[in-house]
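Holo prediction. Input below; ligand is PMV.
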Amino acid sequence: MRATAIAQPNIAVVKYWGKRDLARNLPAVGSISITLSTLYTEMQVEIETGLVDDALLVNGAENRTLLARVSNCLNIVAGTDRPAVRVSSRSNFPIAAGLASSASAFAALVVAADAVFALSLPRAQLASLAGRASGSAARSLLGGFVELENDANDISVTNLLGATDWPLEIVVAITAPGPKPVSSGDAMEISRRTSPFYDLWIEQQAGDLAEARAAIEQRDLQRLGAIAEHNCLKMHSVMLGSRPPMIYWNSATVACMQTIRELQASGVNVFFTIDAGPQLKAICAATDAATVRAALAATDGVVEVMQSGVGEGARLLST
Ligand code: PMV
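Structure of the complex:
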Protein backbone atom coordinates (compact mmCIF):
# COMPACT_ATOMS: atom_id res chain seq x y z
CA MET A 1 0.00 0.00 0.00
CA ARG A 2 1.36 3.36 -1.01
CA ALA A 3 0.27 7.03 -1.23
CA THR A 4 1.99 10.06 -2.70
CA ALA A 5 1.16 13.67 -1.83
CA ILE A 6 2.53 17.03 -2.91
CA ALA A 7 2.77 20.31 -1.01
CA GLN A 8 4.32 23.69 -1.65
CA PRO A 9 6.23 25.73 0.91
CA ASN A 10 4.73 28.96 2.19
CA ILE A 11 6.34 32.30 2.88
CA ALA A 12 5.14 34.18 5.96
CA VAL A 13 4.40 37.90 5.63
CA VAL A 14 3.67 38.03 9.36
CA LYS A 15 6.06 35.56 10.98
CA TYR A 16 5.87 32.86 13.59
CA TRP A 17 8.83 33.01 16.00
CA GLY A 18 8.64 31.40 19.43
CA LYS A 19 6.71 28.52 20.97
CA ARG A 20 4.08 28.67 23.70
CA ASP A 21 4.12 24.93 24.36
CA LEU A 22 7.25 22.98 23.49
CA ALA A 23 5.78 19.51 23.96
CA ARG A 24 2.90 20.15 21.55
CA ASN A 25 4.91 22.54 19.37
CA LEU A 26 2.28 25.28 19.74
CA PRO A 27 3.36 28.67 18.39
CA ALA A 28 3.44 31.69 20.70
CA VAL A 29 1.94 33.91 17.98
CA GLY A 30 -0.37 33.71 14.98
CA SER A 31 1.03 34.19 11.47
CA ILE A 32 -0.03 34.91 7.88
CA SER A 33 1.57 33.34 4.82
CA ILE A 34 1.38 32.90 1.06
CA THR A 35 1.51 29.36 -0.33
CA LEU A 36 3.84 29.08 -3.34
CA SER A 37 3.10 27.32 -6.64
CA THR A 38 6.33 26.21 -8.34
CA LEU A 39 8.50 25.03 -5.44
CA TYR A 40 7.31 21.69 -4.09
CA THR A 41 7.98 18.56 -2.05
CA GLU A 42 6.55 15.22 -3.12
CA MET A 43 6.23 12.66 -0.36
CA GLN A 44 5.59 8.96 -0.83
CA VAL A 45 4.63 6.75 2.11
CA GLU A 46 4.58 2.98 1.59
CA ILE A 47 3.58 0.18 3.93
CA GLU A 48 5.94 -2.69 3.14
CA THR A 49 5.40 -6.19 4.48
CA GLY A 50 8.32 -7.33 6.62
CA LEU A 51 9.75 -3.85 7.20
CA VAL A 52 10.68 -3.56 10.90
CA ASP A 53 11.68 0.12 11.23
CA ASP A 54 10.71 3.23 9.29
CA ALA A 55 13.12 4.17 6.49
CA LEU A 56 13.58 7.58 4.88
CA LEU A 57 15.02 8.64 1.55
CA VAL A 58 15.44 12.39 0.89
CA ASN A 59 16.11 13.21 -2.75
CA GLY A 60 17.23 9.62 -3.33
CA ALA A 61 19.67 9.39 -0.38
CA GLU A 62 19.05 7.68 2.95
CA ASN A 63 18.62 10.33 5.65
CA ARG A 64 18.96 9.23 9.28
CA THR A 65 19.04 12.79 10.69
CA LEU A 66 15.47 13.61 9.65
CA LEU A 67 14.10 10.10 10.21
CA ALA A 68 13.19 10.63 13.91
CA ARG A 69 11.13 13.74 13.11
CA VAL A 70 9.34 11.98 10.26
CA SER A 71 8.60 8.86 12.37
CA ASN A 72 7.34 11.05 15.18
CA CYS A 73 5.00 12.89 12.82
CA LEU A 74 3.66 9.54 11.51
CA ASN A 75 3.09 8.38 15.11
CA ILE A 76 1.12 11.54 15.81
CA VAL A 77 -1.05 10.94 12.72
CA ALA A 78 -1.53 7.16 12.92
CA GLY A 79 -0.54 6.11 16.45
CA THR A 80 2.54 4.24 17.64
CA ASP A 81 1.06 0.79 16.86
CA ARG A 82 1.06 1.55 13.11
CA PRO A 83 3.17 -0.61 10.75
CA ALA A 84 6.65 0.61 9.74
CA VAL A 85 6.77 2.53 6.46
CA ARG A 86 9.20 3.50 3.74
CA VAL A 87 9.08 7.26 3.20
CA SER A 88 10.59 8.93 0.19
CA SER A 89 10.68 12.71 -0.32
CA ARG A 90 11.78 14.77 -3.30
CA SER A 91 12.02 18.58 -3.35
CA ASN A 92 12.86 20.81 -6.32
CA PHE A 93 14.62 23.42 -4.13
CA PRO A 94 17.37 23.44 -1.44
CA ILE A 95 16.20 21.94 1.87
CA ALA A 96 16.89 23.20 5.44
CA ALA A 97 18.19 26.50 4.03
CA GLY A 98 15.47 28.88 5.15
CA LEU A 99 13.16 28.11 2.24
CA ALA A 100 10.42 26.50 4.33
CA SER A 101 11.23 22.97 3.17
CA SER A 102 9.91 21.57 6.46
CA ALA A 103 6.55 23.23 5.74
CA SER A 104 6.09 21.50 2.38
CA ALA A 105 7.60 18.22 3.63
CA PHE A 106 5.38 17.79 6.69
CA ALA A 107 2.24 19.11 4.95
CA ALA A 108 2.74 16.48 2.22
CA LEU A 109 3.65 13.81 4.79
CA VAL A 110 0.40 14.14 6.79
CA VAL A 111 -1.70 14.04 3.60
CA ALA A 112 0.12 10.92 2.32
CA ALA A 113 -0.04 9.26 5.76
CA ASP A 114 -3.76 10.00 6.06
CA ALA A 115 -4.31 8.17 2.76
CA VAL A 116 -1.99 5.21 3.31
CA PHE A 117 -3.44 4.50 6.77
CA ALA A 118 -7.01 5.11 5.44
CA LEU A 119 -7.84 7.66 8.14
CA SER A 120 -9.80 10.28 6.10
CA LEU A 121 -9.14 13.00 8.66
CA PRO A 122 -10.62 16.47 8.05
CA ARG A 123 -8.21 19.07 6.65
CA ALA A 124 -8.36 21.14 9.85
CA GLN A 125 -7.10 18.15 11.81
CA LEU A 126 -4.37 17.42 9.24
CA ALA A 127 -3.22 21.04 9.57
CA SER A 128 -3.07 20.73 13.34
CA LEU A 129 -1.11 17.45 13.08
CA ALA A 130 1.35 18.93 10.55
CA GLY A 131 1.82 21.86 12.93
CA ARG A 132 2.99 19.48 15.64
CA ALA A 133 5.95 18.57 13.40
CA SER A 134 6.69 22.06 12.05
CA GLY A 135 4.70 25.16 12.98
CA SER A 136 4.78 26.58 9.46
CA ALA A 137 3.68 23.24 7.90
CA ALA A 138 0.08 23.74 9.07
CA ARG A 139 -0.19 26.72 6.70
CA SER A 140 0.78 24.65 3.63
CA LEU A 141 -2.36 22.53 4.03
CA LEU A 142 -4.19 25.46 2.46
CA GLY A 143 -3.48 27.46 -0.68
CA GLY A 144 -3.49 31.20 -1.31
CA PHE A 145 -3.22 33.59 1.64
CA VAL A 146 -3.45 31.69 4.91
CA GLU A 147 -3.78 32.80 8.51
CA LEU A 148 -2.74 30.53 11.36
CA GLU A 149 -4.50 31.34 14.61
CA ASN A 150 -3.53 29.90 17.95
CA ASP A 151 -5.67 29.58 21.01
CA ALA A 152 -4.84 27.97 24.34
CA ASN A 153 -5.17 24.38 23.12
CA ASP A 154 -4.60 24.14 19.41
CA ILE A 155 -3.97 25.94 16.14
CA SER A 156 -6.32 26.51 13.22
CA VAL A 157 -5.74 27.69 9.66
CA THR A 158 -8.09 29.77 7.52
CA ASN A 159 -8.01 31.11 3.99
CA LEU A 160 -7.89 34.90 3.73
CA LEU A 161 -7.78 34.72 -0.10
CA GLY A 162 -7.69 31.79 -2.52
CA ALA A 163 -4.76 30.95 -4.80
CA THR A 164 -6.14 32.87 -7.78
CA ASP A 165 -7.62 35.87 -5.93
CA TRP A 166 -4.50 38.07 -5.93
CA PRO A 167 -1.90 37.01 -8.54
CA LEU A 168 1.35 38.09 -6.87
CA GLU A 169 4.77 36.67 -7.73
CA ILE A 170 7.44 35.66 -5.25
CA VAL A 171 11.06 35.95 -6.41
CA VAL A 172 13.52 34.02 -4.23
CA ALA A 173 17.16 35.13 -4.25
CA ILE A 174 19.33 32.25 -3.08
CA THR A 175 22.57 33.53 -1.57
CA ALA A 176 23.80 30.31 0.08
CA PRO A 177 22.03 27.01 -0.63
CA GLY A 178 23.67 25.05 2.25
CA PRO A 179 21.88 24.07 5.46
CA LYS A 180 21.48 26.75 8.15
CA PRO A 181 23.79 26.64 11.19
CA VAL A 182 20.98 26.62 13.83
CA SER A 183 17.54 25.09 13.19
CA SER A 184 14.61 27.50 13.49
CA GLY A 185 13.18 25.35 16.32
CA ASP A 186 16.36 25.70 18.42
CA ALA A 187 16.82 29.35 17.48
CA MET A 188 13.33 30.44 18.52
CA GLU A 189 13.78 28.72 21.88
CA ILE A 190 17.07 30.61 22.44
CA SER A 191 15.17 33.83 21.56
CA ARG A 192 12.36 33.07 24.01
CA ARG A 193 14.80 32.43 26.84
CA THR A 194 17.31 35.21 26.24
CA SER A 195 16.17 38.03 23.94
CA PRO A 196 15.16 41.25 25.74
CA PHE A 197 12.95 42.02 22.72
CA TYR A 198 10.98 38.76 22.82
CA ASP A 199 8.07 39.92 25.01
CA LEU A 200 7.59 43.04 22.90
CA TRP A 201 7.57 40.90 19.76
CA ILE A 202 4.74 38.75 21.19
CA GLU A 203 2.85 41.81 22.43
CA GLN A 204 2.87 43.57 19.03
CA GLN A 205 1.93 40.56 16.91
CA ALA A 206 -1.87 41.01 17.11
CA GLY A 207 -1.54 44.53 15.69
CA ASP A 208 0.74 43.35 12.85
CA LEU A 209 -1.69 40.52 12.01
CA ALA A 210 -4.66 42.92 11.89
CA GLU A 211 -2.77 45.32 9.62
CA ALA A 212 -1.69 42.54 7.21
CA ARG A 213 -5.21 41.05 7.19
CA ALA A 214 -6.65 44.44 6.19
CA ALA A 215 -4.00 44.94 3.48
CA ILE A 216 -4.73 41.49 2.02
CA GLU A 217 -8.47 42.09 2.09
CA GLN A 218 -7.95 45.33 0.13
CA ARG A 219 -5.25 43.74 -2.07
CA ASP A 220 -3.05 46.71 -1.15
CA LEU A 221 0.53 45.62 -1.93
CA GLN A 222 2.19 48.73 -0.54
CA ARG A 223 0.34 48.41 2.76
CA LEU A 224 1.13 44.69 2.97
CA GLY A 225 4.78 45.38 2.14
CA ALA A 226 5.15 47.99 4.88
CA ILE A 227 3.86 45.70 7.62
CA ALA A 228 5.61 42.58 6.26
CA GLU A 229 9.05 44.25 6.14
CA HIS A 230 8.51 45.69 9.62
CA ASN A 231 7.46 42.31 11.03
CA CYS A 232 10.37 40.50 9.35
CA LEU A 233 13.00 42.96 10.55
CA LYS A 234 11.49 42.89 14.05
CA MET A 235 11.78 39.07 14.11
CA HIS A 236 15.43 39.34 13.07
CA SER A 237 15.98 41.98 15.79
CA VAL A 238 14.71 39.44 18.34
CA MET A 239 17.35 37.00 16.99
CA LEU A 240 20.10 39.63 17.02
CA GLY A 241 19.31 40.45 20.64
CA SER A 242 19.47 36.78 21.71
CA ARG A 243 22.37 35.19 23.58
CA PRO A 244 24.17 33.79 21.70
CA PRO A 245 23.08 36.16 18.92
CA MET A 246 21.72 34.58 15.74
CA ILE A 247 22.54 36.21 12.44
CA TYR A 248 21.12 34.28 9.49
CA TRP A 249 22.07 36.93 6.91
CA ASN A 250 25.23 37.10 4.84
CA SER A 251 26.56 40.07 2.86
CA ALA A 252 24.51 39.08 -0.21
CA THR A 253 21.31 39.04 1.89
CA VAL A 254 21.99 42.66 2.86
CA ALA A 255 22.88 43.54 -0.75
CA CYS A 256 19.51 42.08 -1.82
CA MET A 257 17.69 44.29 0.72
CA GLN A 258 19.53 47.25 -0.81
CA THR A 259 18.40 46.14 -4.29
CA ILE A 260 14.78 46.08 -3.09
CA ARG A 261 15.18 49.59 -1.63
CA GLU A 262 16.55 50.80 -5.01
CA LEU A 263 13.65 49.18 -6.88
CA GLN A 264 11.18 50.82 -4.47
CA ALA A 265 12.89 54.21 -4.95
CA SER A 266 12.51 53.81 -8.73
CA GLY A 267 8.76 53.22 -8.34
CA VAL A 268 8.53 49.40 -8.40
CA ASN A 269 5.92 48.11 -5.95
CA VAL A 270 7.86 45.29 -4.27
CA PHE A 271 8.74 44.26 -0.72
CA PHE A 272 11.08 41.73 0.87
CA THR A 273 10.93 39.16 3.61
CA ILE A 274 13.62 36.86 5.06
CA ASP A 275 13.18 33.74 7.19
CA ALA A 276 15.64 31.74 9.29
CA GLY A 277 18.22 31.61 6.52
CA PRO A 278 20.19 33.90 4.19
CA GLN A 279 17.75 33.84 1.24
CA LEU A 280 15.64 36.90 0.41
CA LYS A 281 12.09 36.61 -0.88
CA ALA A 282 10.73 39.54 -2.88
CA ILE A 283 6.98 39.86 -3.39
CA CYS A 284 5.52 41.95 -6.21
CA ALA A 285 2.77 42.16 -8.81
CA ALA A 286 3.12 39.69 -11.71
CA THR A 287 3.80 42.60 -14.09
CA ASP A 288 6.93 43.61 -12.11
CA ALA A 289 8.35 40.11 -11.60
CA ALA A 290 10.78 40.21 -14.56
CA THR A 291 12.27 43.54 -13.37
CA VAL A 292 12.61 42.29 -9.78
CA ARG A 293 14.10 38.99 -10.92
CA ALA A 294 16.69 40.68 -13.14
CA ALA A 295 17.70 43.13 -10.37
CA LEU A 296 18.13 40.35 -7.79
CA ALA A 297 20.01 38.10 -10.25
CA ALA A 298 22.44 40.99 -10.87
CA THR A 299 23.03 41.55 -7.13
CA ASP A 300 26.50 40.58 -5.84
CA GLY A 301 26.55 37.17 -4.17
CA VAL A 302 23.22 35.88 -5.51
CA VAL A 303 23.83 32.33 -6.75
CA GLU A 304 20.39 31.50 -8.09
CA VAL A 305 16.97 33.11 -8.49
CA MET A 306 13.73 31.12 -8.30
CA GLN A 307 10.27 32.42 -9.00
CA SER A 308 6.80 31.34 -8.00
CA GLY A 309 3.21 32.42 -8.13
CA VAL A 310 0.60 31.76 -5.45
CA GLY A 311 -0.31 28.08 -5.19
CA GLU A 312 -2.74 25.50 -3.84
CA GLY A 313 -2.71 23.60 -0.56
CA ALA A 314 -1.25 20.11 -0.01
CA ARG A 315 -3.00 17.36 -1.95
CA LEU A 316 -2.90 13.67 -2.75
CA LEU A 317 -1.31 12.71 -6.09
CA SER A 318 -1.87 8.97 -6.12
CA THR A 319 -2.65 5.94 -4.00
O1 PMV B 1 7.98 25.91 11.15
P1 PMV B 1 9.41 26.17 11.43
O2 PMV B 1 9.89 25.53 12.66
O3 PMV B 1 10.26 25.87 10.24
O4 PMV B 1 9.60 27.77 11.72
C1 PMV B 1 9.34 28.74 10.76
C2 PMV B 1 9.87 30.06 11.19
C3 PMV B 1 9.97 31.13 10.11
O5 PMV B 1 10.09 30.57 8.83
C4 PMV B 1 11.21 31.96 10.38
C5 PMV B 1 8.77 32.09 10.15
C6 PMV B 1 7.48 31.57 9.58
O6 PMV B 1 6.42 31.99 10.08
O7 PMV B 1 7.50 30.80 8.60
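The chain has a mean pLDDT of 95. That is the main takeaway for now.
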